[in-house]
Amino acid sequence: MGTGTGVEYLCVSSADLSAALAKLASNKNAPFLLVDKDTGALRVSLAPGTSSISSASYGVTSYRNTALSNAAQAVKASAGNIFSVQIINTNPSAVFVKLYDIAAASVVVGTSAVKRTLLCPGGSLANPGYVYLHGDALPLFSNFGTAIAVAATANLADNDTAAPTAAINVNIIYV
Asked: Helix or strand or coil: residue 50?
């Protein structure tokens, strides 16, 4: 279990959902965010023991891009926190997903400061490379003070501008 913006969050498998809800409901620190790591479904509560509410009414959003490349894309136009990141790579080579704490319109890939670079191993259409970060893996870079933008490049260096051979699939859950 981790925290971000005063919200407790926990990623669990579908089989562990009931136990996780009971654990969170017994905790006196509300609100909480629960992410089903198998389905990506969100469950949010404003207080322990209350009914779930829709993710939209709490501001939790899922960003999905099935064609991410080396042009920066806006995930969120204002400050926010990332709760999970999923990357799927069908390129035979590794790709590097770069997160920026800058409005997407201001990002110049290869020049702008990168907040965090995430490596996703190479794969194929039949067996893609896959990365899923959540919970304890995120606190070091989950808080974005200005905006959240994302791009993918073929190489690790912050100044790289090379596009991956094939577009990347990325899913980001944020508030």
From this structure: coil
